[in-house]
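Posting this for the archive.
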Amino acid sequence: MSDQQFTPDPSSLRALRERAVAQLAPHLRLLTELGEIFTAAGHELALVGGPVRDAFLGRRSNDIDLTTSASPEQTEALLKPWASTTWDIGRDFGTIGAQKGEWKVEITTYRADAYDGVTRKPVVAFGDNLDDDLVRRDFTVNAMAMRLPTMEFVDPYDGLGALARKELITPAPAEVSFADDPLRMMRAARFVAQLGFTAAPPVVEAMTERAATIAIVSPERVHDELVKLMVAPDPRAGLELLVDTGLADHVLPELPALKLEIDEHHRHKDVYEHSLTVLDRAIALEGPRLVEGLEAPAVVEGPDLVLRLAALLHDIGKPATRRFEGGGGVSFHHHEIVGAKLARKRLRELRFEKNVVRDVIRLIELHLRFHGYGGGEWTDSAVRRYVTDAGDQLARLHLLTRSDCTTRNKRKAAALAATYDDLERRIARLMEQEELGKVRPELDGNQIGQILGIAPGPVLGRAYKHLLAFRLDAGQVGADAVRAELLRWWSEQPESSGS
């Protein structure tokens, strides 16, 4: 932490406050109404946390995080006449929700969350004043508030100074804060990635000392923070903090495992640094891009969670497959297959959605396929297989494959980029000619059954797969040629003798 505290003069503070209030303009009527309702009833109400922080940063926030001296029962009683509907799903944690028109709010009684150090569920204790509520917040930049309806700025722990320094520091001692809720360590990494802040030395030290306590936090909560980190503007910075503090050893151990020990001959590069670089490159390719000679290259809009996870994890199979070869080389045979299995296991444990897991592992399985393309020697059949195997992940596979080229040899990098440009152009031509995204055999299942005189079942399925492979190899050759190929294949099958 900087030795110099940020203490703005009154005019600067007034200007900052005015800017924050301007950012909150869309919510001012709501905030004023609720503030007047609660103060008239003798209670305090304040806007707190992320919305206040974002207002000072000039960022729009859709969240309205309110805290009050009122009990949950008193809050509910005050909200019911005002709102069209209320809900109390968070009552045990002191939170009452309400909706009026398009406005949704959640109001939480002053509180202090703490874990008992064993279970994954926080123990909730309600407080009676704003300052004590703020000291139990995760970081000082989130421990600022605005009293309602006056919009009086409250900052007992120098959150504005930390905001000016772009520094994450806890209001309470960091070891106490992280003992209260270990997930705050994940939030530190997320804010580093999301806001461009730096974790203060006491925060880093406490994260390092208490990294293992993340195990008492539910996988669902860890998942949510990891997703927010991965779709942030600079996930690399947050991931590096997780690895450097040892937190990743408990959350995503495959990542620090990529720091392969460099043997005395330095016979391989650091796969960890390579993976972070691939992630950076993939992020840079999100959104509109240009491919010479191609009017409409496939676009992946960012931030794209699947692409970013695949970029980060594409080489996690390397530590398990590393082999030292004669002549000083190192090989990682089949690391894409091993890596896909590891990724499936880890992402499932972190409670990622099934479709995310499926798409990430597919990209990992295919990320080496392009390296067989050489200088463009692939046949049209091989290009068709590349497209059909990638399926709806083709656009992401384009970006992952391009990002995986991290060589510092400019000539080699330019040659690889030009070769992939050529592949994308070939894919575009074939897709235009043959609608590769809808490739099917030229005979459907009913026709195959009629020609061979067989009923639906495993044998017909094998015949269909054979004709699909024939379609990929030969392209469109017409129904007569396909029928002849089907009959040729059938004559070699043991089932044909009894037909």
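The first strand starts at residue 45 and ends at 48. The chain is about 50% helix and 10% strand.
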